[in-house]
Automatic annotation (TrEMBL):
Any one of the GO CC terms: plasma membrane
Pfam families the UniProt entry points to: LPG_synthase_TM
InterPro entries: L-PG_synthase/AglD
Cellular localisation: Cell membrane
Annotated organism of origin: Rhizobium chutanense
Principal location listed in the UniProt entry: membrane
Name of the protein: Flippase-like domain-containing protein
TM spans (from-to): 12-30, 50-70, 132-152, 158-178, 211-235, 247-266, 286-308
């Protein structure tokens, strides 16, 4: 019997570590929560509040699928919105059910090929969609961090979070400007396998719809903030819309860190720290985060309906 390769150990070890981090954080936070108080708050939520949030999260998925269609068109061939929405819901299912985003991205790539895109076009579209999502969230989170510091005199207890986020956003913008201006100079120093991505990025940066797509990205992230504030109102917590705009985006950015499963634990910890600046206690903050996470999970699991009919789902699960 041969020893397992380092690549195989990484494929098993990294997801296992993410699960351990998520469980560890959730258990640690649970020890500080009054479950009877949290459950009473959840029971007070109206069906209308839950329904509105679910509709908003579905709208967010639809807007994300539409943006993916627009990005695909820039690369070469546009997806139909119906197919893109179906594939996006499938990817949400994999992202919620598995400790890695790779199967969800693979679902979109394989599915896009089925709808007529080449493997290269489909891969570039998904990669660019991921990059734009992360950059847009960083911009929204930076605005929240600046408001928290300037208006509410509060800094997250993560060393230099505001400074690093500022550096990342400013550096990305500067690099994009230089890249769009001197694309040929950059491409000389890139490996050949990145030339297609380089060309796609240059096409996006110089495209007349670039600003519109970026604004659409900000709207997509804004839907999360609106959903959370509606949940805040439903739980009866004392947090206004302006405070929500400052408090929630940094938490969503922290939850994107690839060291947990679906942001669980990270989102709850970030929410507790962020809302403490506005006098909201640990139980209320954790309850808000958990309910929001469960509603996101519900939307993701709804994508499993589309997965059941997929002829290539076995390939994706094997990744």
């Amino acid at each position: 019997m041969t020893a397992p390769s380092s690549k195989a150990l990484l494929r098993i070890g990294i997801p296992a570590l993410k699960v351990a981090v998520a469980l560890g954080l959730v258990i640690w936070i649970a020890r500080k929560v009054d479950f009877s108080e949290g459950w009473a708050a959840v029971r007070a939520l109206s069906a209308t509040t839950i329904s509105v949030i679910i509709l908003l999260l579905l709208l967010q998925a639809l807007l994300s699928a539409w943006r993916w269609c627009l990005l695909s068109e820039m690369i070469g061939r546009r997806l139909k919105i119906s197919g893109a929405m179906k594939l996006f819901m499938q990817s949400l299912f994999y992202n919620q059910a598995l400790p890695s985003p790779i199967p969800g991205d693979a679902a979109r790539i394989f599915g896009a090929v089925k709808y007529g895109l080449t493997v290269g076009e489909a891969t570039l579209g998904v990669v660019m969609d991921r990059m734009l999502t992360l950059f847009g969230l960083a911009v929204v989170a930076l605005i929240g961090l600046i408001i928290m510091r300037a208006v509410y005199q509060f800094d997250f207890p993560i060393p230099y979070l505001t400074e690093f986020t500022t550096l990342g956003v400013a550096g990305t913008i500067a690099l994009a400007v230089a890249f769009g201006w001197r694309h040929r100079l950059f491409i000389r120093f890139l490996p050949a396998r990145l030339h297609a991505l380089s060309t796609a990025l240059q096409a996006f940066i110089t495209h007349r719809r670039m600003v519109g797509i970026f604004l659409l990205t900000l709207v997509i992230h804004g839907v999360s903030v609106v959903s959370l504030e509606i949940l805040v109102l439903g739980l009866g917590l004392p947090l206004g819309w302006g405070q929500a705009t400052a408090a929630f985006p940094p938490v969503l950015l922290i939850a994107m860190m690839p060291i947990s499963v679906g942001g669980w634990g990270l989102r709850e910890g970030g929410m507790i720290v962020s809302l403490a600046a506005f006098g909201i206690g640990t139980t209320d903050a954790a309850t808000l985060s958990v309910v929001f996470g469960l509603l996101q999970l519900l939307i993701g699991l709804a994508g499993g309906v589309f997965v059941l009919s997929r002829p290539h789902s076995g390939k994706i699960k094997a990744l």
